[in-house]
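User: quick one
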Amino acid sequence: MPQRAVEIILMRQLAGYLAMPILLFDPEGNLLFYNEPAEAILGRRFDETGEIPLKEWYAMVAPIAEDGSPVPLETLPLVIALKARQAAHRAFWLHMPDGSRRKVESTVFPLEGQGGRNLGAVSILMEVRAA
Amino acid sequence: MRVTLWGTRGSLATPGPETVRYGGNTSCVEVRGSNGASLILDAGTGIRRLGANLGPDAGRVDLLLTHLHMDHIQGLGFFRPLDQPGQEVHIWGPPSTTLDLQARLSRYLSPPLFPVRLRELPCRLTLHDVPLGAFEVRGFEVTAALVCHPGPTVGYRISEGGVSIAYIPDHEPALGARRFPERSEWTSGFDLAAGADLLIHDAQYSAVEYSRRVGWGHSAVLHALRFAAAAGAKRLVTFHHDPGHDDAALDRLVDEARGSVDVPLELIPGAEGARFDLSPG
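Assistant: Done. Structure below.
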């Protein structure tokens, strides 16, 4: 597999040291990496899933809006950040592997490398706990 | 392809009786192709002697800078072709996110750091923001890629006549890696070095020194060796020697590395003046 851009490599290494949930996506929206705090929210381990294509990822977590309707793929903060090249934020529910749901807030920002290269996006995924 | 090391030291020129075997000049390498054309890699203090050895009919000169830290550009003002009226010189190097190569280089080649301004040089100078990816220079296929080192820094892979070298003089691929080396796609510099006939790579520190200088942008000798082995390089030339390492210390470091890792490649401590003649097969 070709080597990734050094900015992506460094972003993964940084995410590996941070105590906040981080997901790293390529320009097509494929999930390249998520760190241990994100594993705790997603209920999955990166070593077990490896990289996940966008559509598979979308089907896996099946995001649900506050009103109970499915969140369309194109309105996910990730897809907005990748297409519009701007930060995006939204709260929604994720399906867990055990069938339960978990409310999260996702903040995604695009990654732009030297020379304006589109490198993908970074998502910060915070669980929303009941007060 | 013939590769000549004109400067192997890192950080600071370190002349003296204790560094005569491996050399005290900072980074500079010459790559000469089968068609007689040559590329010069970095402009550390070693480039002064190289320039003095280029004949008056050297033809076009192409200098590829990996980055603009002082030990890689300090010899520039003393590189003879730049002072020759009409001499065609092309300098390639990385821009920053806001400044092009000319603006960045002018910060050094101008008072008070240097008496002559870049624009005052009498040669026919062209500056190129080095493209990331593959491009062609005088019959060489050159690939530049950003690598892990503070500030905009590239490594180069140069191919010609069926052989390839990789030049990554300032590189910390082990930074932050839980296991090193990681898989190829998560290892900085991997594609540049993959299968290279000759890899010239940062090996500034001992393992103990590295543990105290994580994030400074350099590698321990063992990192360089493991990186080279993972990338399938055939020969590794250690480079960018620490100014604090005299000849005896470098001998020791390389001997220790040879004894601690069993890898199928030749480990060669980079010595100023060393030449490598590379041919296919």
